[in-house]
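Q: Entry one of two.
A:
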Amino acid sequence: MTNEYKLSVVVLVYNTEYYLDDCLDSLINQTLDDIEIICVNDESTDNSLNILKQYARKYDNIKIIDQKNQGGAIAGNNGLKIAKGEYIAIIDSDDIVVEDAYEKLYKKAKKTDSDIVAGKPVKYVNQYQRQIAFKNNIWDEERTFTVDEFKEIYYDVFYWNKIYRRKLVEEHDIYMIPGKIYADVPLVYRAYSFADKMSIIPDVVYYWRRRAQEDIIKGNSDTSVSKSLLDIPNMKDRLSTYYYVKDYFIEAGLEKYFNYVIKTYVERFFYPIKGILKDDNFKEVYLKEIKCILSEIDELYDNNLDKRYNLFFYFILNDMDDELEDFLNFDLDEKSTVTRDGKVYWNVKFFDNPEYNIPDEIFEIKKVEDNFINVEDISADSEYIYFHNISLPSNLKIKDVKASFMGLTKRDTVKENNVYEFSLDNTGNNIYNGKVEISKINNINNYDVHLKVIYDNDTYELFRLKEILFEKSSDEIVKLNKNDNLIFFFTSLGNFSITKGYCKNFFEYNIDSNGMFLIPKTNGAAIYKVVFNYKYDNVYFTQTDNSPKIRLQNELELIWKYSIDENTKYNLFVEIHKKKFKLKKNAFVDFKNQEIEYNGKKIRIFEDPEGYIAIILK
C-alpha cells in the first residue's frame, strides 16, 4: 500500500448546493499540505455537481465520483476505496472543517502513532457555534489511549470529526454498511474496536451544520430525512444497527464492553417515540423490534440515561402499551420527587403504586436531569445577576455547580473566549445560591445561560436553563431584571438567555479631524455593531481592516464627512440583534470631554446631562 497523500478527505454530496462552497472552501484552505479531496456526488438533483466541477477545474487535488443514487453508505465506501492518503477523513458536504483542523489532527497522529485522532465538534446553527450536548466531557482533555484505557470514547459516535489510518480501514473492512441509512455509528464503533491506539485533541475541528433540527425530530419537515423517520423500513434500518454493532464487538473480542456501549447508544432508538405510537401499524412493528433488543441487554436498568428511559424499557418489556402511552402523554415533565431512607425517587404516578407494581429501583434518581432541577428565580440589579434557590436532588454527590454564560460565537473565533463561569454556593441539601458580578462578563453579546454540574469524579453535565425549570412564569422572570443594560428573555423554545449591552472600559478610542476610531479590549467574539444615532438616523461604524473575518474584535471607524450633520446631537449605541444600548462614558478607557477642529467648525464630544456620550458639530 503506497501513500500518495498525507490525508484523503471523502466528501459525501447530495443536494447541498447552498452550503457546498463553504464546505469546499474550508478544505482547499486547510493549513495541512498534501491533501486529496474526493467528492462523491450521489446523483444530486440540484446544482451540486456543477459546483464540484468548477472547483475541480481550479484545484487538481479535487476528484469527483459521479454515481447513480445509491445512498450515503455506498457513496462513502466508493470514496474510501480510491483514497490514497496515509490517513482518511469522511465529512458531509453541508458542514465546515476548521482551517487548521487537519494539520492538528495529522500532527497528533504522527507524534503518537495513533490509528484514529478525534477533535471537538460544535453545532453550527444560523451562523453561530452551539455546544453539542454530551454526557462525558471526552473532548476537554488531550489524551492518547487504548480502548481498554478509555472506553468513554464510545460516547463520540460521529464519523466526521476524526482522521483514520487508511491501513486500519483497509485491513479491518471499516466501511459503511451498504444500503443502510444509519451506517455511520457502526463504522465508528468498528474503527474504535480494531484500533491499537487513539488520540483526542481538545481543539474545535468541525462545524456540524444543523438545519431544521426540531422539525426533523418531530417529523414536520419536508426533507427526505424527516420523511423517513416515520417510515417502517427506515425504523427497522435504524434498529438493525444494534445487531451490526454487537457482531463487531464479538469479532474484535470486546464482548466485555458491548453492554456498556449499547447502553450509551440505545436512547437513540427512542428519539421519535411520540410520533411512532400515533400510528398503530408503526407502533406494532416498533414495539416488537425494540423489545427483542432490550431483552438482550444485561443489567439494562444500570445505566447513565435519564429516568424516562428506564420506564420506557419497563413498559415495553412488560407489554404495558397503554401505560407507555399514558406516560408519554402526561408524565414526561413531572418534577415531583420523594425521599426515602436517603434515596430520592421520581414521584410519577407509577411509583409505589400497587396497580402497576413496578420496582422502586426503576425510579431511583442517580444523577441530575432537567426534571429534577428547580429554580426559584433569577434577578438582576445595577451590579449583579442573582441566582436564587436552585435545587438539585439532595442525595447526589456534587463537587460544584456553576452558572455558565455562553456567548454567541461565529466561525473562526474561539468559543471558549466567550464563555464565563461562576461557582454558586451550596447553602445545604444541594440548594445553590449566588450572585455574579456583571462587570466580569466582559463582552457585549447574547448569552445562553446554563448550569454546569460537576460531580465528585470531575465529570460534568451542562443543563440549559429553560422555562419549565423555573417556579415563576417567564413573564415574571423577565420583570425581575432591573438593569437597563441587560435584557432577560426566553427563546421560542423556552430557553433562558441574557443580552448584555454594556461593558466597562470596553473600548479604547481615538478622535481626530477625520473621524472616530474604536478598539475593543476583549478577546471574545464580536456580534455587536456600534451605531452613531440621531432619532431614526443610524450610521454604523465600519472595520478599518477589510478582512472577511468580520467576527473578530477589529478596530472600528466612523468618518465624519459621511456621517455628521451640523447642529445635530448624536449619541453612541451598541446594537445586538436590533436591540440598542446607549453608551455611557465609562464604556471607554479614560474618556474625556474634548473638541476638535473640522472644516472650520468644531466637533464636540462630551458627556451629556443624562450621563451618555454625545457628539455635536457646530
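Q: Entry two of two.
A:
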Amino acid sequence: MRSKWWPLAAITLGNFMLLVDVTIVNTALPQIARGLDASFTSLQWVMDIYALALAALLMAAGSAADLFGRRRLYLAGLAVFALSSLACGLASDADVLIAARAVQGAGAAAMFATNTPLLMAVYAGRDRAVAFGVWGGTSGAAAAMGPVLGGLLTEYADWRWIFLVNLPLTAIAMWITVRTVPESRGAPGSRVDWPGAVLFTLCAGALTYGLIRGGEEGWTDPVARTALLGSAVALVAFVLAERRTRQPLLDLRLLRRPSFAVLMAAALLLQAAAFPYLMYAGLWFQSVLGLSPVQAGLACLPLGVTSMLVGAVGGRVLGRLAPGRTVGCGLLLVGAGALTHVLLLDSGSDWTALAPGLVLTGIGTGCAMPVLVQAALGSAPPERAGMASGAVNTFRQLGYALGIAVLGTVFASRVRDVVQDKAPGDHTGEAAEAISGGHAQSVLHAAEPGPARHALESVVRDAFAAGLDRICLYAGVTALAAGVLVLAVVRGGPQPARPAAPRNDRPEADHPQAGRPQAVTPQTVGAQAVSAQTVGAQAVSPRAR
C-alpha cells in the first residue's frame, strides 16, 4: 500500500460514515417506530442522543487525542462506532437503540475530532489542499446521500441495515489506518479538562432531557423541572471550573468578544432552525402522505444538493466577502425558507409544498456554513484559532440536539391541540401521540371503514400540517432574528487565511492542537465541501492553550 492517498481514504471513509449516520436515520423513523413500537419521545431520542453525545464530547476528544495519540483515538472511535452500530442493528426495543446511539455518538466524536489533525500530520503543501478538498467533498456527498441511502436500505432490506452497513466499512477504515496512517501526539504537558468535559456533558444532557420531558409530561412535572434546574447548576459549575483551570475546554474570555459570542449563538441557532424540522417532515412524508422510504429520501434532497452546489460554485466568491454579512444573509435565507413552508403548507399539500423552502434553506446554509468558521477565527486571537473552530462545531451539534427537543415539543403540542379540537374523546391524547410518532396509519386502520375513517383522515392531515406549520414558523423567526443579530454585531471585511507555520509546512510540530475539528458538520456539510483552499488555510491555524 504505497499510494500516498491511502491515509486520506481511511480518514474520509470514517468521516463519511459518522455524517451519514445523522441523515440516514430520518427516512427510517416510521419503520423504527413500527418495528420497536417506539413512541414519539423515543424517536426524538434516537435522533437527539447521537448529536448530543457528539457535541458534548467533541472538544474533550480533541484534547484526549493530543494526549494519547490521534491515530490511536481514531481507531478506538472506529471500534466503538462499529460495536455500537451492531448494537443498534440488533436492538430489541427503543431503549436499547437509544443507548446504542449514545455510544455511537461518542465514537463519532473521537473520529471527528481526529480527522483534521491526522490529515495535517500526513499531508503538507499542495497535497494538504487536495486532501482537505476531497475530505470536504466526501462530507458534502454524505449529507446529500444520507436520506436516499436510508430510504434504499429501509425499503429494500430492513431499517436495521442503516446501522449494520457500518460494520464492513469500519473494518476497511481500520485496516487502512493501521497500515498507512502514522501516529502523532500533542505537545508534552497537554492534558484533558475532564471536569469541564463532565460538567458540559451534564449541562447539555440535562437541558435536553428537561425540554423533552417537559414537552411530554407538562412543564409542572417535577422530573422536568429538576432536570432543567440541574442543567443550570451544571452550567454555573462549568463556568467556575473553566475559569480556574490552566488548559480549559473553552476559554470563556473569548465570549467577552461580542462578535465571537454572537457567532457561537449563530452556529447554534442556524443548526436548530435549518435541519431539525426535517425529522418531522420525514414522518409526514411516509406516515401521512404514504411515500415510500426512497421517495421520502428524495423529497429531502433539495436542501442537501442545493447547499452543496452553492458551496462548491460560490466558495471562492463567498471567501472574498465580509464573513459577517455572508453568515447573516445566509441565516436570513434559512429563515425565508422556513417561512415559505408556512405560506405553502396546508392539510391538502403534498411533498412538493416543501421543495421551494428547502431550496431557499439550502442556499442559505450553502452561503453561511463555509464562512462561519472563518468568521469565528477572525473574531478570536490567532493563538485560540483551534479552540474557536472546535467551539463552532460543538455549538452546531448542540443546536441540532436542542432544536430536535424544542421543535418536537412544539410539534407534539400543536398536533395534540388540533386532535382534541376536531376529534374530542377519551382516547384523544393517545391518538395524538400515535399520530406524532409516525403511527398515523395504525390510527386510521383502527377506525371503522366509511365516513368515520374519512373524517379521521382529515383530522390526521390537519393535525400534521398544523404541527409542521408551527415548527417552521418558530424555525423561520429564529433564523431571521439570528441573521439580524449577526449583521448588526459582526463587523469587518474578509478575513485573510492565517499563514502557515514555517517549519516544513507542518505547524503541528509546534502547535499540535491546530487540527481541531473544522467547518464540516453533520447535516450541513454540503456547504463545507467546497473550498479546499479555505479549509486548508483554516486547518493550519495554530492553537495554543
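A: Comment on entry two: Residues 497-545 have pLDDT under 50 and may be disordered. The radius of gyration is 22 Å.
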